[in-house]
Amino acid sequence: MLTAYGATDTTGNPLDKPKLVQGDMQSTSDTIFYNTRTQKGLTKSTYLQQGEMYVYANTIKKINDNTIFAWRGRFTTCNLDTPHFAFRTRKMKMISNKIGVSGPASPEFEGVPVPLGIPFGIYPLNRGRHSGFLPPQFASSEQFGLGLEGLGFYKVLSDNFDATVRSNIYSYGGWYLNLASRYLKRYKYNGSLNLSVQNTKILNSGGYTKEEFTKSKTFMINWSHSRDTKARPGSSFSANVNAGSTKFNRFVSNNSLQNFQNSLSSSINYTKDWGGKYNLSVSANHSQNGNLGLVNLNLPTASFNVLTIYPFQRKEAIGTPKWYEKLGIGYTGNFQNQISFYDSAFSIRRVLDTAQYGATHVIPITLSLPQMGAIQLAPNVSYEERWYGQKIIRSWNEDRKKV
Fold first, then answer.
1. pLDDT digits over 16-44, tens only?
2. Distance of alpha carbon 220 from the chain centroid
3. N or C, which end of the chain is more exposed by having fewer CB within 10 Å?
4. Residue 257: pLDDT above 70?
């Protein structure tokens, strides 16, 4: 039997406490009783760390290498002496690197208990990525009131995909909900998606309006995606999307940098090359001014190019090439559609009415004639055609003598 007590100086003040380390489990106690033969033990006033979980208990009983029981304990993932948050319970069982379970538990924030409780608790202790609840933290704001921020859940969906849901709740009635997801497949693609919705209710403390609160509902979408060049040689795809309500950033709580961000922009690009003979480029772009509420879209912008080809050139050149074999023809085509509207007056019909689209086609023809002494002729001609989505009809008014 091994027994250890904390050392004290001549005045009775503690100098140091006994520590016990086994694998990734570390504990510091006032008193340790440990049977080296049966691997069982009992500790008092123990501070224990298991992975990312911190437990402080009046009494801890170890019954085998993997299992311990705690009596009157506090557990948290915060490593401070007075943690930002914690759960208190009378009984708790922990299985090393697997799970912790408890009976009824009540939360506390910075040592202050909250008059709420849960009938039981299940706390994963797995190493590495694992699903679980995300604890909130208290927040206080003159505009939003008292609140809980960051309460959520993290879910590992696969080795390549995970998702996080977080929420904020405020005493004035406002709330915020965010869904964030990340995905990655090596040598294929990677990206992230963020969807946010907030129902804002802000106290009008300045007395500028008759209403006691200002209410609004806003949203935001953030999407980032890139494809590895090895996934599909000859083509590429990337996206960086930031779009949403123009007032969203203005109402985000406790983030002054984001509050003054008044512009948003997005871009999506795709390119394809066919062996250096043809290439295609398609893109979509978006810009948004938060002060004016003006949204501009270039959706889509496309370009298709055919490099110069020589239709009369022989596949197997024999002797001196004929003059017409050097006749080259190329092609460049462009298409663009532009849309502008104010988000405060958004409707599908108005958006379609503001659409301005058109296309251009250019066909260059070149010919390099054989050199005639000191004279070298290289005639070329180019054909260009423009297509417009709108037309203007003008006529002569005989009475007014005006067009």
1. 888 888 777 788 888 888 888 888 889 99
2. 11
3. C
4. no
Rounded CA gap, 47 and 29, in Å? 6
Rounded to an integer, what distance in angstroms lies between the CA atom of residue 5 and that of residue 32?
Answer: 7
C-beta separation of 107 from 114 below 8 A: yes
> Which tokens sit at 259?
């509050």
* Backbone phi and psi for residue 336, each to the nearest 5 degrees, phi listed first: -145, 140
Q: What is the pLDDT of residues 276-289, one digit of tens each?
A: 899 999 999 999 88
